[in-house]
Design brief:
By secondary structure, the protein is an alpha/beta fold. A hairpin with a 4-residue loop joins strand 1 and strand 2. It is globular and about 65 Å long. The mean pLDDT is about 95. The chain binds adenosine monophosphate and zinc ion (2 copies). The site of one zinc ion (ZN) has 8 residues, from helix 1. The site of one zinc ion (ZN) has 8 residues, from helix 10.
Length: about 300
Amino acid sequence: MKCRVCGRDAVVKLDYANLKLCREHFIEFFERRVARTISRYGMLRRGDKVAVAVSGGKDSASLLHALWRLKGELGVELVGVTIDLGIRGYSDQSVEVARRNYEKLGVPYRIIKLADYGFIMDDARTLKKPACSTCGAVKRYLLNKAAREIGATVIVTGHTLDDFLAVLMQAYTRGDLQQLAKHRVYLPPADGLIARAKPLVETPERESLLYAQLLGLEFTVIECPLSRGATLADFKAALNLLEERHPGMKIMMLRAFLNRLQPLLPSERRVPGRCEVCGEPSTSSVCQFCRIRSRLTQLRATCNRP
Ligand code: AMP
Ligand code: ZN
Ligand code: ZN
């Protein structure tokens, strides 16, 4: 198997593009695609201070690295933000890996501890269902708050093509029109809310893994203990089966949704009021974070754990 660009030994075969690439040309291909996604959806502007949400996993490690390589060309400045969610057997390692990635690249960063708010995600262990949606709300809130305090103009996350499509399928399965409408690759800023973007949305997860491996980036492979039983992983497996039999299916689904379906959905304006408890942007009188906080601190008290 030879690289289409240089004829040296290829390390990867991309069926959807009928392309075989060597290490060097795959890395270049990967970074060019990130730059193209950013420009296609108007995700970043020159002079932006970009808060990169780094979890310790492969996707955000690859994103941080790719943006670090592209920052001169894009004319942006990077700052890392990592949330320590307090999940036993998971968070400590993830946060340390994130920290080492920042330090290796010399990217300034901030680590936010959920415990400083009087609870941790481990308190959700007693809940019956997977805690992913609760955890997602907590992360969105803390990332927004931290990014605003740092003076960042946009938050980027490592959500890949597979992540985006899996959530899409889940929302479709539930008939959740509201979630479909707000499932965006780029959300513009609104009062108190920092813009958010997903620069890896056109990148298959398997390639973000390969990029991280080829560059020798450090990342954790431990699965979050609170996500057991989550259906998103099964949607991803189903999508990969489709992709294997019909190369190009995943990117086609993304484009069809963004170009044809989403414009038909009622678009929710991001013009929030303020939470009565914490003062952060919220569409209800008490924000989701404060409601989660009150529920989980109660749980914590009743479980009587140290
Ligand atoms: P996940 O929801 O775990 O699939 O993560 C999706 C993206 O959210 C990651 O690629 C990161 O950009 C961001 N993210 C997840 N967890 C954290 C965290 N603890 N701290 C900062 N960013 C995170
Ligand atoms: Zn090559
Ligand atoms: Zn609040």
